[in-house]
Design goal:
The chain is mostly helical. The protein has a single domain, classed as Non-ribosomal Peptide Synthetase Peptidyl Carrier Protein, Chain A, CATH 1.10.1200.120. 65% of the residues lie in helices and 3% in strands.
């Protein structure tokens, strides 16, 4: 059990670091060129003011205490999630191909019967045997 706890701890630390790397990739590498292509859009500064007033930046609106819908940050988080989820998917497929993980799609006919299934088969066979005599 200690080995599993240690594996989990290492996974959490590495996952947290990987999350920071992906966030930096999205915010510092992917979104600036995409914003340039879309007409000099700054994704970190995309927002809708839900209250009264007009503000040039998200920081100004937050400083004024006006409720805002910061959809640029939300789009950035969605892109983070998609990259991380796709990376995990690829890693799991790679580990499965290397046979480090058991197959995630084992056909039901290849699994051995459980104790309950064996007991039910015995009961069925006993009932069938009584009906024939």
């Amino acid at each position: 059990m200690r080995g599993n706890a240690m594996d989990l701890a290492v996974g959490v630390v590495v996952g947290g670091a990987f999350g920071k790397i992906v966030t930096s990739l999205v915010n510092d590498v992917l979104l600036p060129p995409l914003g340039l292509i879309l007409g000099r859009v700054d994704f970190s500064n995309l927002f809708l003011v839900l209250g009264a007033g007009s503000f040039q930046t998200l920081a100004e609106a937050k400083k004024a205490g006006v409720p805002v819908l910061a959809y640029g940050a939300f789009l950035s988080s969605i892109l983070d999630f998609v990259i991380i989820a796709f990376s995990i998917f690829l890693i799991l497929r790679w580990l499965e191909k290397l046979r480090w993980l058991p197959s995630l799609a084992v056909p039901a006919d290849e699994l051995p019967p459980t104790r309950s299934e064996k007991l039910l088969e015995e009961i069925r066979d006993e009932i069938r045997g009584r009906g024939r005599s």
